[in-house]
Amino acid sequence: MLSLLSRLAIESLPQAIRAIKIVIGFTLLLIGIVLIVLPGPAMLVIPVALAILAGEFIWARRLLKKFNAHVKNLKKRRK
Question: CB within 8 A of 61, min separation 6: which ones?
Fold first, then answer.
């Protein structure tokens, strides 16, 4: 019985970690969206949320790449 429980725990640990990453990522993304309207560092929170979600979702990876490209363009314009 103990080996069954330990095997189950080992098999479900990666799924639990993935679920925690997804919950944290979406929570930060929602906070970042709210911070667009309210005063706060939305342009810092949203990329962090996308970076967390990019490990699990392709759409988040694409949005993060677009965001990074826009930041690079803005830096080039300032020079």
Answer: 54
Dihedral in degrees, nearest 10, Cα atoms 46, 71, 59, 11? -60
Q: What is the DSSP track for 5-56?
A: HHHHHHHHHHHHHHHHHHHHHHHHHHHHHHHHHSSS-HHHHHHHHHHHHHTT
Residue 8 identity (one-letter amino acid):
L
Please answer whether residues 54 and 60 qualify as being in contact, where contact means their C-beta atoms are separated by less than 8 angstroms. yes
Give 40's DSSP letter: S
* Threshold 0.85, pTM exceeds: no
DSSP code of residue 64: H
The string of pLDDT tens digits covering residues 8-57 is 667 788 888 899 999 999 999 999 999 999 998 988 999 999 999 999 99
Structure tokens at 68: 């990074």
Where exactly are the structural domains of the chain? 42-79
